[in-house]
Amino acid sequence: MSDAMSKPRAARIAINAGLLLFLCLYALIVLIQPNYLEPGLFMNFLRRAAPLVILAAGQLYVILTGGFDLSVGAVVTFTVTAAALLTNGDPDATWPVIALLYLMGAGIGLFNGLVVAFLKVPSIIATLGTMLWLNGLALAWSGGAARGDLPENFRNLGRFQWRDVALVGTLPMAVLVLVAVLALLWWGVHGIGYGRRALAVGDNPRAAELAGIPVGRTRITAFVISALAAVTAGILLGGFSGVSVNAGVGLELQSIAACVIGGAMLLGGRGTIWCAVWGALSLFALFTLLNLLGLPQALRDSIQGLILIVAVGLTAWRSRARN
Amino acid sequence: MTPALDMRGICKAFPGVKALDDVSFDCRPGEVHAICGENGAGKSTLMKVLGGSYRPDAGEIRIDGAAMRFAHPRAAAMAGIAIIHQELSLLPHRSVTENIFMGHELVRPGFAGLLLDRGAMRARARVLLDRVGAQIDPDRSVAGLSIAQQQLVEIAKALLLDARILVLDEPTAALDDRDARQLLDLIRILRGQGVALVYISHRMPEVAAIADRVTVLKDGRLIWTRPQAEATIPAIVSAMVGRDLKDFYPAAPTAAPGETVLELDAVQAEGLPEISLTLRRGEILGVAGLEDSGKGQLARLLAGDLRPAGGTARLAGRPMPLGNPRRMIAAGLGYLPADRKREGLVLRQSVRDNAALALRAMRPAWARPAAGVFAPAMLDAGLKRMDVRAAHFGQEIGALSGGNQQKAIIARWLALDPAVLLFVEPTRGIDIAAKAAIYQTMREVADQGRGIVVVSSDLPELIGISDRVLVMHRGTIAGVLPRDPREEEIMQLSLGVSV
Amino acid sequence: MMADRTLPRLSVAMVLLLISVTIFAVTAIATGETAQFSLQGVTGLLQRMVALGLVAIGQTFVILVASIDLSVAAVISGTAVLASWLMGGDPAMIVPAVALCLGFALAVGLVNGALVAFAGINPLIATLGTGLILQGVLSASYGSLGGAVAPVFQQLAYGSLFGIPWSVLALFGLALTMGGLLNRSVLGARIFAVGGNPDGARLAGIRTGRVILTAHVICSLFAGLAGLYLAARVQSGTPWLGRDGIYDLESIAVTVIGGTLLAGGKGGVAGTLAGVFLFASLDASFNMLGIDAFLKQVLRGFVIIAAVAVHAVRGRGHVA
Amino acid sequence: MSMKVMLVATVALSGLAGAAMAQDFNDPAEFAKQREQLSMTPQGPEGAPWAQHLGDSMVDTAKWKKDGPATICFSNAGIFNPWRVVGMHNFQAEAEAQGDKIKELIVVDAEGKDEKQIADIEALVAGGKCDVLIVSPNTTAALTPAVEAAAAKLPVVVFDRGVNTTAPVTYIHPVGGYGFGISSGEFIASKLEKGANVLALRIVPGVDVLETRYSAAKTIFDEAGINVVGSEFTGSDRAKTKAVVEDYLNRGVQIDAIWMDAGDTATAALEAFEDAGLPYPVISGEDQQDFLRKWRDENLTAIAPSYPTYQWRTPILAALDILAGKPVPGPEWVLPQPAITAETRDGYIDEKLPPLHYSLCGCQNLPGYPARWGGSE
Which of C199, C202, C181, C170 shows the shortest CA–CA distance to C46? Predict the structure, then answer.
C-alpha cells in the first residue's frame, strides 16, 4: 500500500477540484489582462485576497465540526471599528490594541461556542444572533459612522509592500501575514490531532462523544478559531483600506461559499484547509475577473451565484456517480 | 400453485462488483422462505431489487405470474410487496397512526382526495395494531415506544397495504428473546393467512424454527434452495461460509479469573433501582434480560452515558467516574455500542482514523496526528492484528462490512489498553465467519487480563461466550448463572419466574 | 413520555404569544401610549406581521422537509418589481400581473426544489445561489422595470373590513389554511414524513423529491405573495425591498423560534406565526421606548438566541 | 437546462438594463432649474443657511396654530450611513437648542425598511401624542400613501427625499442631485483637457438622489468631450473602492480624474494611487473631514460638492413655525447647496471631528458640539 493510496480519497479530489478551478479562473484573468502574470500583480492579488482566504480558513474549522459561523462578517466590522476607536491614530497603541482585539475575538468565539455546545442552539441561529448584536454593538460604539483613526503602523499590516524584492517584485506584508496564518491554521487541522477530532465531531458527534472526544470543547475551539481568524482578516482589511462600518458586510456568506466551492462538506465530516484556500482564491479570482470584464456590478452577483451552484452541483453529481 | 413472488435470473453489477449473478428465488403464498448468507452475499441487494430501490441489469420479477418492473419503491409497494428493514423507518415526532399510514394515507371522499380522514385512519390503525398483537395507543408519538413496539408498528404498516409478499430483514436483531418469540408467532399467523414471507436472519435457530424453505447465497450467487427438512443448521452454515465451522465459540479459559477489576455497589440510576456486580480480570461476564429489563440502562451506565443517583463504583482499583464517557475511558473502559452506525463509527473517515479515534480523544489535541502512537504503521499493525479487511486502511470505513467495522472498533479500544471492555450486541448484523472471529478475539482480550462485559439479546451467543451470565429483570439482577447455563434457566430468570 | 403529540407544539406558540402580549402591554402602559390598545393600534401591530408572516409560513414548509430557502428575499423583490412594472398603474393589468408574478415565484420554487431534490445540492448553497442570480438580474434590469402598482391594488395593503385590514385577515386566513394543510392533508402528512425520515419516507413509497419540490414551490409562492403585498404597500417595488427587510434570515429565525426543527419533521405554522408576533411586538415596543436603532439590533440578536435556547436547551441530542 | 435558461435570461435582461438605465434620471428641465438655483442668492438670515431658502413661494399655516410646548414626532428612514448619522445628531441638537418650546421629541427609526416606516407612521398617528409629524422618507413612492393619510390629521413636514403628494405642509431639501453633479462635473471638466479619462465611482445603482448626480456629471463630461472610462459601484465599501481603482490602474488605464457620487470612500480611492506609486488624479469628493484633510495635506486638485447635512436642522424650525401659525417657505423649501473649494476648504476642517463627519453640518454653535458628533474636546 503506497502512501498516496492511504490518503482519504475524497480529500484528494477536493484539493484537485478547488485548485483546478482557481487555475482556470486565473488563466482567464491572464487571458484578458496578461500583466497579471507578473509576480508583482500576483502578489497584489494575494494581498487583496488575504482577508477572505483567512476568513474562509477559519470558517472551515466550524464547517468541519458540522456548523456555520455567520458572525465572521460582524467580527470583521467590529475589529475595524474597535481598532480605530481604541488606537485613535496613536502608533504606540497599535500592539496593545491588537492584543485586545484578539482577546475580544476569543470572547466572541467563546460565546458562540458556548451557546451552540451548551444551550444547543443550532449554529446557524446562534451565529445569526451574534451577527446582529455584534453589528449593533459596533455601530452603537462608533455612533453609526467610522470614528477614530488607524495609525500608520497598524495600517501597514494590510497596506505596506516592499518594492523591488527579488523574484516576486513587490512583497506585501499582508501576504506574509497570510502565509503565517495559513501555516498556523494548516497546523491546526493537519499538523495536530485537533483536526481529526473536529472531523469526527462533524461526522458523528454521538460516536465521537462515546469515543471520549470532548465534543463541546472541540466545537467551542472551532468557533474561537473562526473568530480569531476573522479578527486577523479585520486587521488586514482595516489596514488595506481604512476604517469603515461596513467592512465586513457579506463576508460570512462569501467565506462559507469559498469552503464549499473548495470541496468542504457542509454539515461536517469532510474537508481540508486547502478547500478553504483554493475555494477563497477561486472566489476572489472570480471577483477580479468580473471586474476586469467590466460587467454591470449587479450581474456579478448573478454569475457568482451561478458558479456556486455549478461548483457544488458538480461535486454532488460526481459523488453520486462514484457511489 | 403459482408462486406469489418469482425472481428469475437476476443480475446486478456495481462498479467493480458483481453483486448478484443470475440469482433465482421464489416464494409461495403461505410460506416462510428464509434467505441466509454472509454480509456481502447479495441478500440486501436482492431485496433492494425486489423493493424497487435498484433496477436489475438482467432477469425478471413476476408477481402472481405477471412480469413487473419497479421504477420506484412506490411501484413495488403497489404490487403488494412490503419490506421491513433493519433500520427502522419511522417518524419519531409523529403518532403511531401517522406512521402506519405514511405514504398511504386515507382520504375523505371529495376534496379532490386531498384531505385526510383521520378518524378512519385511527380506527384502522387500531385494527392493525390488534392484528400484530400490539397494545399501543395509536395517538402516541413513536419516540416514546420501545424498539419491539416500533417493530410491530413497522409490521402494521406492511399489513395496511395487504402486502401479499412481506420481507423481513433481520427483524429480531434488536429484539430480546421474549419479543423475538412473539414476533415469530406473529409470522406464523401471517403465514396462516396466506402471506408469502421472505425471512432474512443471521440467527440460525430462528431460521430452523420458522422457515419452510431456505435459500443460501454466497458472493452474489445462489448456492442452493432446500426445504426445511434438508436445511439443517450445519448445512446452512457450511454453505454460507463455504467450509465447516468448528469451534464456533472459543474454549473456556484454562486459568482462573484474576483480581476484581470492576465493582458496582448499590449503584442507582434512572431505570436501575439498585445494582451491584463485580467483574474480574480474565472474565467474560454476560448480561441477559428482556428488552425492558434494564440491561440497556446498565450498558449506558457503564459506558458513562447515564448519570448515577447513588452508590459507589470502582474500576481498576479507583473510584469510577460514572456519568461522563470521556472520564470513564480515561479510567480504563472501552465501549462497543450496539448501534455501530449511530454510536460507534465516524462513517466518512478512514478505517485508520476510526481506529485512532479514542486514542486521539485521550491524547492532547495538539499531539501530531501521524506520529508516535498515531503513526500509520502502529495503527495498521493494530488493525492487521484484528484482521480487518479493507482495500487499504485509508478507505472510508462506511464501505466495510459490519464485521470488519466491529473489528476496527475493537482495535480502537485495544490501542488504549483498557482494563474493561463493554460489548453491547457485539455481533448484531454480523455474518457468521466474522462472528466467530470476534468471539475468539473477546476471549483473547480477556485472557490478557482484562474484564469483559457482554450485553446481548442473543442467548446462544451469551451462553457460548460468557464465563458467568447475569440475568436482569425490572432493573435489578434476578440471578447470576455460572458458565454454560441452559437457555431455559436464563428465560425463567428474565421472566421473573423462580427456578 | 411524549404522551400528547400536539401539546408541545401548541405550547411553544402559546408561550410566545403570552410573552409577546405581555411585552407589548407593559411597554404601552409604562410609556403612557395606551392609545396603542385601540383597534387602530392593535391592527397596526398586526399589520407589522403581514410581510414577515407570509414569508415565514412558506419558510416553515421548507424547513419541515429539512431544507431551507435563502432566496426568499430576492423573490420578494422580484415579484414586487414585476408587479409594479407589469401593472404600470393600470387596474386592468392587475389580474395578469398577479398571475405572472406568482408564475415567476412558482418558477423560482421549481428551480430551487429541483436543485435541492434532484441535483442533490445542499439547500443552503442552492438557494443562496438562485437568490444571488435573481438579485443580480433584478438590480441590473431595474432601470427598465420602473412603474407603480394600480391604485386599486393598494387596497390590498391599505383597505380594511370592519376596521381590520384586509392584509391581516388574509395573513390569518392563509395561516389557518396552511396549518390545516399541514395537519389535515395528504401533502402535510408527507411533508412531515420526508422531513422526519427521508429514507423511511422513500421506502414507504413516497416520492420524496416531489414533496421537497412542492415545499419549495409553496415557500416561493408565499414569498411571492409577500412581494405582492409589499408592492401594494409601497406602490412601487425596488430590487432591495426583500434584502433590506432581511426577510431571508428573519423568516428562518422566527420559524425556529416557533419550535420548528431545523432538521425537519417537527413544527408547524402556529409556532411560526407566534414567532412573527414576537418580532412585531418587540418592534412596536422598541419604538414606544424610543430605543435607538443600534441598540435595537443588539437586543434583537440576543432575543433570537434566547428564544431558541429556551426550548433547544432541553434537547439531549447534539446540534451543530 | 434550467441554468441555461437563467443564463440566457440574465444576458437578455442585462442588455435591456444597459439601454434604459441612463435616461430614467435625465431630466433636462430639472437640470437647468438646479443649475440656476446653484447661482441664486438665498433669502433669510445671513450665515445660517439651514434657515435660508431659494425662491419666494410661502405657504400659510394659520390652520395648524397650536399654543403651548409641542410634541414633535419624527419618522426617520434610518441611520444606516454616516450622512444620516451626522444629520440625526443635528436634528437632536436643534431640538435641544429650542429648549422648552418642545415638550417631547418622539423619534422612530425604520431601519431602512419601507414597510416598517409605513407602519411606524401609522402607529405615530394612532398613538395620538404628536402635534406635528416630520418624515424623512426611505423611498418616495412607498411612503406617499402613509404620508398622505397622516397629513389629513396633523401637519406634516417632509425632508431629504420627497413624496408624490402636496399634502405635507412643506418639503425641505437642498438644491438636489443635479446640482451636486453640476458642481463636481464642471470643476473636473475645467481642469482636464478634451479626451482625458475620468473614472466614476458610485455607491449603488437605482437610487434617485444618486442617479441624478451621475446623470448631471455625465451630461457635462459628454459636452466637454471627456471620456468616462468606467462607472463602478462600490457599495460604500472602502476595500471594494480601493480594489476597483487598483484594477483599473493594473489594466494600465490612464485615469486623469475620479468623480464620485458620494465622498465617503474618496480617501480609499486616492490610496490606490499612492500604493501604485502614481500621482494623484483630479478628484471630486464630498464634505467629509477625512477628504478635506487629505486634500489639504496632499495639496490635491479637488472639489467637495455637498448635499448638506444642515438640512436636518430645518424641519424642527419649520415644525415650530407651523405650530406658531407663521408662514413657511413652501410647498418646497429649497435650501442652498454650496460646494467646498480650495479657497473655502480650510474653514471647514476641524481636527476635533471624526473622519466621516460632514463639514456642512452647520452645527458648530449647537449644544454638545463637538462631542455629540463624535469629536474630541
Answer: C170
Residue B388 CB neighbour total at 10 angstroms? 26
* C56 found inside a domain: yes
Against chain B, the chains showing at least 3 CB pairs within 8 Å are: A, C
Mind listing the pLDDT tens digit for each residue in D285-328? 999 999 999 999 999 999 999 999 999 999 999 999 999 999 99
A185 — contact with chain B (CB < 8 Å)?
no
B247 pLDDT higher than 70: no
Is residue A69 assigned to a domain? yes
Q: What is the pLDDT of residues D85-106, one digit of tens each?
A: 999 999 999 999 998 899 999 9
State the Cα–Cα distance between residues A55 and D203, nearest whole angstrom: 25
Contacts of C193 in chain B (CB under 8 A): 91, 94, 98, 102-103
Cis preceding-peptide flag for D315 (omega within 30 of 0): no
Tens digits of per-residue pLDDT, B157-190? 888 888 889 999 888 877 777 888 888 998 999 8
Closest CA to C165 of D135, D118, D127: D118
Which residues, numbered 133 to 162 in chain B, qualify as contacts with chain C under a Cβ-Cβ cut-off of 8 Å?
139-141, 143-144, 157
Question: Structural domain tally of chain A?
Answer: 1
Pick A193's closest partner by Cβ from B343, B345, B367. B367
Which residue in the set B343, B357, B364 is minimally distant from A200, CB to CB? B357
Residue C312 domain flag:
no
Residue B115 confidence (pLDDT) above 70: yes
B78 interaction partners in chain C (CB closer than 8 Å): 205
Cα B457 vs. chain centroid, distance in angstroms?
10
Fold of B260-495: Rossmann fold (3.40.50)
Least confident of C30-44, D71-85, D180-194: C30-44
Q: Do chains C and A touch (3 or more CB pairs under 8 A)?
A: yes
- Range of A205's domain? 11-22+36-315
Grid cell 458540522 in the structure block, residue = A66
Residue-range domains of chain D with CATH: 49-175+308-337 (3.40.50.2300), 177-303 (3.40.50.2300)
DSSP class of residue B21? E
Measured between beta carbons, the chain A residues lying within 8 angstroms of B330 are 212
Cα of B360 to nearest chain C Cα, Å: 20
In CATH terms, are B5-241 and B260-495 the same topology?
A: yes
Tens of pLDDT along A129-170? 999 999 999 999 988 887 888 899 999 998 888 888 877 788
CATH no. for B5-241:
3.40.50.300
Read off the pLDDT of residues B403-453 as tens digits, 9 standing for 90 and up.
Answer: 899 999 999 999 999 999 999 999 887 877 788 889 999 999 999 999 999
B102·C207 Cβ contact <8 A: no
Q: Give D112-143 pLDDT, tens digit per residue.
A: 888 899 999 998 998 888 999 999 999 888 89
Q: Which three cell numbers stand for residue D293?
A: 484633510
C-alpha cell at B200: 432474512
Dmax over Cα atoms in chain A, in whole Å? Answer: 63
Which chain C residues have a beta carbon less than 8 Å from that of A297? 139-140
Q: Are strands D282-284 and D302-303 parallel, antiparallel or unpaired?
A: parallel
